[in-house]
Model the fold of this input.
Amino acid sequence: MDGVTMYRGKALAAFLKAVGNIIPLMDSEHAGEFTKFLTPTLIREFSTNDDEMKKIVLQVVRQTVATEGVTVKYVRTEIIPEFF
Done:
């Protein structure tokens, strides 16, 4: 979890890609908690001008919302308004 606060730029992009692949492998409780921890960073990075980072953020969002531990209510209230 520390990588989210430590990295910037390309290192953060690589970290987010890795996390996006790991979250679906977690049990549902941990996946939901980690998604809630990661969401503010995803929202912040999506507002940057870097198109590559935006693609990575959208990929991670797609992977996390498809995970069993992330509730529909959380997706509707916290994630959808920020991206649409």
Q: What stands out?
A: DSSP finds five helices and no strands in the chain. The CA atoms of residues 42 and 57 lie 6 Å apart. The radius of gyration is 12 Å.
